[in-house]
Design goal:
531 residues; alpha/beta; eleven-stranded mixed sheet; disordered C terminus
C-alpha cells in the first residue's frame, strides 16, 4: 500500500539528520522548500547543493545563489569560508551519496505515493518504457514517463535534458506528476544514474533489466564495473533495489542479474526451460509488424506489435511482465502495445518509395548488428547503412561498429555523428578501419557531410532494398565542437527522398520529425534499445 506524501516542509535540522551532517541550533528550524544543483536556479528558501566539478567546485558559485542554505563537502566548505559565506552550511563526505535522499525528503517522498517502474540495461530501455506507457494507459492508469526522448506527464511533454535527471530534478518531477494525478511512472534508469546516486531516495516497485553489451566504457572502466552499476537496481543488499525484479535472460548477463536479484520474474524469447514470461514470434507482416504470443502466469496472449525486430519481441515481453509485477491487468495492458510507436527507434520514413527507409538510434556495436539483421530479414534486396560514432565517448567501440556494419550491409557510408571536441576525420577513420578489417564484401564509402551521406544512401537504393541511418534517432541536433547545430536524420531522409523524386519535402516535421523531442540529448543516458 502506497503512502501519502508528506505536506510538511522539512527543516534544515531534519535534512542534516538525513544527510548525517551537523547544523547549528540557530539554523536547525530553517525550513527548506527546494533543492538545486544550479546556483542560478536555487530559490529563496531552497538548498544549493555545491558539488565538486571537473574544473571548478560548485561552491565557487554559491554567492550567485539565493538559496537559504548550502550542502557541500569539505573542499566546498573551505571555498565558502574563504569567501566569507554566512549562510548555514551542511558538510558531508560525498554530496551525491546523500543528495537523492535529501531531495526526496524536501519534496515529500513523492515516489512512495506512485507506482514506480524503472528499466535499465544497455539497449531496450526507451522502447520498453514506451511500451509500458502505452500498455498502462490502455489499462486505465494515469502515466508519467521519464527517459532519453524527454519527459511526459499524462501525454504532455515536459522539458528535461538527461535520460535520468539529477536527483533534485527527479524528485521535483515526481512531486509534480503526483500533483497532476499521475498514478504510475515509467522511467529509464541509466548506469550513470545508478553510479551517481540520481535515483537514491526513490522507491521503485518494479525494476526491469533488458540486456548488457559494450557501451559507456568511457565512464565504466570494465564490463564488470558496468554490470555492477546496473546490479544496484536488483541486489537486495543495495539501498536502491526495487521491490520486485523482472529480468530478461536472453543473454548471460541477464542470467547473472536474475541470480543477483535472488528472486524475480524471468523473461525470455529463446524457449529457455524455466521462464515466468515467454514470447514467441508467430509471423511478420510485409510492413514489419510482428504477430507474437506471450505466456505469463499460466495465461496466453496474442498481439500484433507494430515495431520490427526480434529485440522488440523481448522488449514487449519484459514490459508485459513488469506490468504484471505491478499488479496491472495484463489483458488490457497488451491491447495497448498494438498502438506503440517510439521516435527514432526503427522509425520508418515513407514517402511512397519502393524500398524500406529507416532511422534508428543504434550507436553501439550490438545495436547496429541487430538493426541490420532486422532489415536483412525483411527484404529480398540489398541493405545500406549510414553510420558514424560520437566524439568524447568510448573510442573502443568505433571499429566494432564499423565491423558489425560491414558484416551485414552491402553499402556502408561512414560519416559524422556528434564529433563534439574530437577530430571528426579521426573518428571516421576508426570506424572505417573496423569496417575494412571485417573482410566482408560491403562497399565502404566516407562522407564528411551527414546530410550528403544520407543523400548518397537514398540515391543508391533500388526497389526491394532497405536503407537505414543509425546513431542519432530522435535527436534534432548535431554537436560539433561545443555547438549544437540543428539536424534531424528523419527530416534529412525525407529531403533526400524528395530529391530522388519521392513524396513531398516539408520542414514542418510531422509524425517522423519527433514532435516529442525538440532538443539534443547526450549519449550519456542513451542506452538505446536493443540486445
Amino acid at each position: 500500500m502506497k503512502s501519502t506524501p508528506s505536506a510538511v516542509t522539512p527543516t534544515l535540522g531534519q535534512l542534516a539528520a538525513e544527510a548525517g551532517a551537523v547544523v547549528s541550533e540557530d539554523a536547525a528550524d530553517l525550513q527548506i522548500s527546494s533543492v538545486s544543483l544550479d546556483s542560478g536556479q536555487a530559490a529563496p528558501g531552497g538548498l544549493f547543493a555545491a558539488l565538486p566539478g571537473t574544473r571548478v567546485h560548485g561552491a565557487t558559485y554559491a554567492a550567485q545563489s539565493a538559496a537559504a542554505a548550502i550542502l557541500t563537502d569539505a573542499a566546498g566548505r573551505e571555498i565558502l569560508a574563504k569567501a566569507g559565506e554566512k549562510r548555514p552550511v551542511l558538510v558531508v563526505e560525498d554530496v551525491r551519496a546523500v543528495l537523492g535522499r535529501v531531495s526526496a525528503r524536501v519534496y515529500g517522498q513523492p515516489s512512495k505515493s506512485l507506482t514506480l517502474l524503472g528499466v535499465t540495461g544497455t539497449s531496450g530501455k526507451t522502447t520498453t518504457t514506451y511500451l509500458l506507457e502505452q500498455g498502462l494507459i490502455a489499462a486505465g492508469c494515469e502515466v508519467g514517463l521519464i527517459g532519453t526522448t524527454g519527459t511526459r506527464i499524462r501525454g504532455r511533454d515536459v522539458p528535461t535534458s538527461l535520460t535520468t535527471p539529477e536527483a533534485p530534478t527527479l524528485q521535483a518531477l515526481f512531486a509534480q506528476m503526483l500533483s497532476e494525478g499521475v498514478t504510475h511512472v515509467v522511467m529509464e534508469v541509466s548506469s550513470h544514474a545508478l553510479s551517481l546516486g540520481r535515483v537514491d531516495g526513490s522507491f521503485f516497485d518494479v525494476a526491469g533489466f533488458t540486456n548488457l553489451s559494450q557501451d559507456h566504457l568511457d565512464f565504466h572502466p570494465t564490463m564488470e564495473d558496468y554490470f555492477e552499476a546496473k546490479a544496484r537496481f536488483f541486489d537486495p543488499a543495495s539501498p536502491v533495489h526495487a521491490a520486485r525484479s523482472v529480468v530478461c535472460v536472453d543473454d548471460a548477463w541477464g542470467e547473472r542479474m536474475l541470480d543477483r536479484a535472488g528472486e524475480g520474474l524471468a523473461v525470455g524469447t529463446r524457449g529457455q526451460a524455466v521462464l515466468d514470461c515467454s514470447a514467441t514470434l508467430l509471423d511478420v507482416t510485409p510492413a514489419g509488424a510482428q504477430h507474437i504470443s506471450l505466456t505469463l502466469a499460466g495465461a496466453a496472449y496474442e498481439l500484433t506489435l507494430p515495431l520490427p525486430g526480434a529485440f522488440n519481441v523481448a522488449n514487449a515481453a519484459l514490459a508485459t511482465a513488469m506490468a504484471h509485477a505491478a499488479g496491472v491487468d495484463v489483458g488490457r495492458f497488451v491491447s495497448g502495445l498494438e498502438n506503440a510507436a517510439v521516435p527514432g527507434r526503427m522509425e520508418r520514413i515513407d514517402a511512397g518509395q519502393d524500398f524500406v527507409a529507416v532511422v534508428d538510434y543504434a550507436h553501439k556495436p550490438a545495436a547496429v548488428a541487430a538493426a541490420l539483421e532486422t532489415l536483412r530479414g525483411q527484404v529480398a534486396g540489398r541493405v545500406g547503412v549510414v553510420i558514424g560514432a560520437g566524439g568524447d565517448r568510448d573510442a573502443s567501440k568505433r571499429p566494432l561498429m564499423g565491423r558489425e556494419a560491414a558484416q551485414r550491409a552491402d553499402l556502408v557510408i561512414v560519416t559524422d555523428d556528434n564529433p563534439r571536441t574530437e577530430d571528426p576525420a579521426a573518428i571516421r577513420a576508426a570506424v572505417i578501419e573496423g569496417a575494412a578489417a571485417a573482410g566482408a564484401n560491403a562497399e565502404i564509402r566516407e562522407s564528411k557531410s551527414r546530410a550528403e551521406a544520407i543523400e548518397e544512401l537514398i540515391a543508391w537504393a533500388r526497389p526491394g532494398d532497405a536503407v537505414i541511418v543509425v546513431g542519432k534517432g530522435h535527436e534534432v541536433g548535431q554537436i560539433v565542437g561545443t555547438t549544437t547545430h540543428p539536424f534531424d536524420d528523419r527530416k534529412e531522409m525525407r529531403r533526400a527522398l524528395s530529391l530522388s523524386g519521392y513524396g513531398e519535402h516539408s520542414d514542418s516535421g510531422g509524425a517522423d520529425s519527433g514532435g516529442a523531442s525538440t532538443r539534443e540529448h547526450t549519449h550519456e543516458g542513451s542506452e538505446g534499445r536493443r540486445p
